Amino acid sequence: xxxxxxxxxxxxxxxxxxxxxxxxxxxxxxxxxxxxxxxxxxxxxxxxxxxxxxxxxxxxxxxxxxxxxxxxxxxxxxxxxxxxxxxxxxxxxxxxxxxxxxxxxxxxxxxxxxxxxxxxxxxxxxxxxxxxxxxxxxxxxxxxxxxxxxxxxxxxxxxxxxxxxxxxxxxxxxxxxxxxxxxxxxxxxxxxxxxxxxxxxxxxxxxxxxxxxxxxxxxxxxxxxxxxxxxxxxxxxxxxxxxxxxxxxxxxxxxxxxxxxxxxxxxxxxxxxxxxxxxxxxxxxxxxxxxxxxxxxxxxxxxxxxxxxxxxxxxxxxxxxxxxxxxxxxxxxxxxxxxxxxxxxxxxxxxxxxxxxxxxxxxxxxxxxxxxxxxxxxxxxxxxxxxxxxxxxxxxxxxxxxxxxxxxxxxxxxxxxxxxxxxxxxxxxxxxxxxxxxxxxxxxxxxxxxxxxxxxxxxxxxxxxxxxxxxxxxxxxxxxxxxxxxxxxxxxxxxxxxxxxxxxxxxxxxxxxxxxxxxxxxxxxxxxxxxxxxxxxxxxxxxxxxxxxxxxxxxxxxxxxxxxxxxxxxx
Length: 571
What we know:
Elements: H1 14-25, H2 50-59, H3 62-70, H4 76-89, H5 107-120, H6 122-125, H7 131-141, H8 155-167, H9 174-187, E1 188-190, E2 193-194, H10 205-221, H11 226-244, H12 268-276, H13 283-298, E3 362-365, E4 370-374, E5 379-382, H14 395-399, E6 403-405, H15 419-422, E7 428-432, E8 435-438, E9 447-449, E10 452-460, E11 463-472, E12 475-484, E13 488-493, E14 497-498, E15 505-509, E16 512-517, E17 520-528, E18 532-536, E19 549-558, E20 561-570
Antiparallel strand pairs: 1-2, 3-4, 4-5, 5-6, 7-8, 7-13, 9-10, 10-11, 11-12, 12-20, 13-19, 14-19, 15-16, 16-17, 17-20, 18-19
């Protein structure tokens, strides 16, 4: 892949942004199947069928191509590929037929991308098809109405698929749409925030799906359902100020929760607001957030040598991936390019990229269960963690640490057998016997507010911890009341910073350990409990942002009985 360095100029005008999209998708062309309906870009597997993974990889570039076409863009090679792929993938007589669907089929996720393209760019993906091809595509999309979808954000896929069928005058299931919309209402908790299913989290699936797909619905159902559409639009306006606080001035957003491999989909909400004509922020501010976010991501080593987007976060990394991440999964991130559908005359294209507005240094988000901290270049979320596990991998690392950062990301354990493999950044870790145990589930009844957080938890039978986190102007203080039935050791850990590179340094003396890197520092100091400052060099590739890291920490001796640990973490 060409060694191209992205700048704000690559998105300053419509022509430049269109060129950037094509440059990013062009490396995919050699990997499409002869019939165009499959895309094979990797040898790794997901929990679903490999055939579905190749269909997924075919579908997800449409998140970028659909608004590109809707806004008047043209790239004949991709137009021919997708016309052929849609015809062949839905033809039961063709070797590349995508097949019938089953309950909870991965292909339902990809129907959302196909439906998005039909809604935004019917002149490119629908109208050129023959009558037989249109009938085949209709019949194949109807599969979502014959099977069950997961009771979470997936319900939006069924809603959008039926909305797309309706938009081109084909049979659709109003009943299925209403059932999904009713579920969405059941997940809504106020302030623009939804839970991702009955036991789900409030994470990036709010800006990935729950809120922006409501705006898509409003775009096409405004006349028929003005009250519901106004409700979806109002929720987007309520959500925007909270979500803006997740972003740092340089465009990075906090790394938190699952599905981090979708990368720049983190800013898709703002792009969909533009598409829907919903002014949730001043236009120059909104453009600045989007453009800086894309530039921050696209200059990271997230592509392979062929220029194909990889599974990972700040670099290729299967360690942090989900069981539902196939080789083409990261291309969902291209939903962030929804702004390409804006007409040439839209004021977005002439607007400057304004900096973030002045935001509070400390901001409590009651509907998200987060306490946000900000300084001039860094955003941190203090969280109480989950009260129950789910079926997704690395849930503890993705939701249950004390703090999540826009600068340093978080780390994912390899195993509990050594401290280096456990990579316990931003958490309290105990060594008991041969194994290392970190904070996992929080007991029900935690508290969070502008003054801080309080929670009870137990990493292992025989150890009970009550933790208070108190924000300070320079970071936060952790107070842990540890009640232990055994003698052991504890490590109260800060963020994981790059272990090498410009300005990388570390020093430990007495109760304090400090690590520095080119763009920041983290200092951990044991204030009470007899701790000493130490460093940990975790296994490589455990951190989302940097492959080699160092974690400053306070190491404490733990004796049978009760004792209080007090640790200051500055950043």
